[in-house]
């Protein structure tokens, strides 16, 4: 986190959200959250958009591409931490029974983790580094689930040292390993799901087949291990509510199998997969399914990642070069961020980023309706030497952009900066300029 970033939070947070629209209640916060999400981006409307716009403008105005030091025009994020706060309130309203354990892998930005910790969420960690990061913020190990069914023995020993007990498993080998290194761990049996409609699928890699769960429970019992419940993940970017309901039903059967063995399970972990644009749809069927299949005594947790952070981050990148290739009938634009950087989501997360013009010929265009459409055909490329580093092979822009112009990308908080590489020596840790459109979030961060 840079000095720029920290100062930006203070400077842009001076006006609390409820001063602007005269409403400070949680319900108002939630409806505002829905109105500014990436799915229905409202082109500059709303306080969050105003702050993001201001931060983008300030930052690009500070860059003189003709004289700056090497990397002075690097890409950067603007993150509205108020959006994280709104997503949390929205979660609480729509899924009051389900405790979110934020999936750190999705975006390990420390300020976001700090805010979530202060909002009282738990955390899903998959490695020692993620555990250390979260615990360094004062989060108790009891608020962490080590949600990785296939773990290195050394990481299990580390979890044991730190008394970080909750962890998942999905096979017999893992049970023997846990017996050896952390026999008092609290185990969640991860089951397979139908994730065929999801953006990113995991069931080819993780999750016990439903035919094997009774045997695994019996083995855990024979080994005198402490199975506390069941977990699942319906795939990241779930298609809708049905996979969740099916998985809840399957989990209920595993609870019954455990009961038949004389084991009492207490926890259900419904994983991640929630999106900004289908959250209410999922919550609308998941909540009732949980109540139908599980008594109130069962604790329900979840591991949302994308839902919390995707819409909060905007990425700005600089046009560093341009080639005109008449045969192609389109201009080739080269940015200083690409597939090896923050746009790794194109490869790893199946995203197709929409290129929007931020500045052209000195004109600032954030939020303009026409900034991602027009008659100019362009292909857009990242800065590395690799041909795979293509942001989009074809898009329509309102202008032939020039070297020195800026473009931006909305909804860039999930699975972007967490997997950026330094390939070819380009920047893998770009600045984040923080703004805060929610008074509550600002107070929590100032504590
Ligand atoms: C075990 C686990 N939990 C949670 C998540 C977060 O999923 P999402 O971002 O779809 O909510 C992931 C994503 O990879 C995961 O592997």
Structure description:
There is one protein chain. Helix 3 (26-35) packs across helix 5 (81-94), helix 5 packs parallel to helix 6 and helix 5 crosses helix 15. This protein has 15 helices and 17 strands. Helices cover 34% and strands 20% of the residues. Strands 1, 10, 11, 12, 13, 14, 15, 16 and 17 form a nine-stranded mixed sheet that branches. The two termini are 18 Å apart. The radius of gyration is 23 Å and the shape is elongated. The protein has two domains: 8-81 and 313-446, Beta Barrel (Lyase, Ornithine Decarboxylase, Chain A, domain 1); 85-309, TIM Barrel, CATH 3.20.20.10. The longest helix has 19 residues, at 242-260. With 447 residues, it is α/β, with parallel strands linked by helices. The chain binds pyridoxal-5'-phosphate. Pyridoxal-5'-phosphate is lined by residues 103, 105-106, 124, 147, 202, 233, 236, 271-274, 303-307.
